[in-house]
Amino acid sequence: MTLDFILGHLNYWLFIILMMIGFYIVVARGNYIKKIVGLNIFQAAVFMFYISLSKVEGGTAPIFPIDMNIDPQVVYSNPLPHVLILTAIVVGIATTSLGLALIVRIREEYGTIEEDEILEIESKLQSDENSTEGASMGGRA
Amino acid sequence: MELFINLVLFFMLVATAIAILRMRHLFAVVMLSGVFSLLSALLFVALDAVDVAFTEAAVGAGISTVLLLGTMALTARNEKMPREFSIVPLLVVMATGAVLIYGTLDMPSFGSPTSPAQTHLAEKFLTQSPSEVGIPNVVSAILASYRGYDTLGETVVVFTACIGVLMLIGSFARRRRKNDGGAE
After folding, report:
1. Contact in structure between A118 and A106 (CB atoms under 8 Å)
2. What is the ipTM of this complex?
3. Which of A86, A87, A103, B37 is the most buried (most CB within 10 A)?
């Protein structure tokens, strides 16, 4: 564990810390909107991790001069992760919007967007169903 | 200097994320998620990914905030008082984080020009795209030309999500549910 090693890997560790904060929001909080925000944080941390892989020491953004006179001395960062993450951001917003639409439907159906209240309603419905079924079968079930 | 900028931005990101974790006012949570997106756009600029920064600022801080605000207006404004603190999620998160950090120990160090990610395709794209595609921005060249099918797939995903949202909360779904309710 030299100082070089720590400085070279510090970025990855920082992004993992950020990712785990997002993960904790998803797992520990009961409110569905907050879970979606936590998921977005998790996702943004993954994006940062990918982008940090494309960085080259002393490099610059992968855009050539407009007259295309490319100086071979200039170092450019790797453009491929940038492209992948551009796609991922747009796909991410698509899935987020689908999740938010589901939340609106859940609220219409249950009247709440808190996970524990929904579980309570669900178990109540389940036990009601069981007791009516049991009665219709002559109490044998 | 670069490391210093990264560290400052990172600590601002962590402060925002922890504030999101602790706030129970959903409006504040949504606004903080917009702040989070803008901060991550800044970090992308610092990491040379200007195109990604543009997209993150427009999509993450713009569209996603609007969608979250709309959902909030249709559902609830406050989070309920949290349940009593449970240690299990914290342990799960810690264990996952530890495994991930263990996984990074083998990785090439940050910014190394000899890492596998830099030595294969990147070289080809950077040297050949000026003659093959001929536009200054390599990211656009790859996005629209070399990886055009990826972008087509992305459009399909967005289209599918659009149909999904319309089926869940569109006017057609609403009308059908109303009819079902009348029949019962």
Report:
1. yes
2. 0.88
3. A86
